[in-house]
Design brief:
A hairpin with a 2-residue loop joins strand 2 and strand 3. It contains four helices and five strands. It has one domain. The chain has a five-stranded antiparallel β-sheet. It is an alpha+beta fold. Helices cover 25% and strands 28% of the residues.
Length: 107
């Protein structure tokens, strides 16, 4: 099982998990109750329920590099390009935009 903490604008907003059943994302209760909380995307509005999907959520998959940048990342970290969660955790700690992905143990 792989897990990462997800941040929006440097505010912890939830946990993304990959296990044998697929991907799961749960917003943090404190984040949901905070003033000015923003959803990750229009397809993942703020809710206390866990989002579940067999494939990577599009909002996260869109953060992963493509093309020659994907080749560099894959070769540098020795990550299979099909291992979307590992690529997300390796490449998206400080990516362009509001969302950051921090693997557990790297806080």
């Amino acid at each position: 099982m792989k897990q990462a903490r997800i941040y929006i604008q440097d505010s912890f907003c939830g946990i993304l998990t990959e296990d044998e059943e697929g991907y799961h994302f749960t917003y943090d209760a404190g984040y949901l109750n905070s003033e000015g909380a923003l959803p990750l995307s229009p397809t993942m509005p703020l809710t206390a329920e866990t989002y579940e999907k067999e494939m990577m959520f599009p909002v996260f998959d869109g953060l992963i590099p493509e093309g020659w940048l994907l080749d560099i990342a894959s070769n540098t970290w020795k990550i299979d390009p099909r291992d979307r969660m590992s690529l997300l955790m390796a490449c998206c700690k400080d990516c362009i935009g509001d969302i950051s992905v921090i693997p557990f143990g790297n806080e």
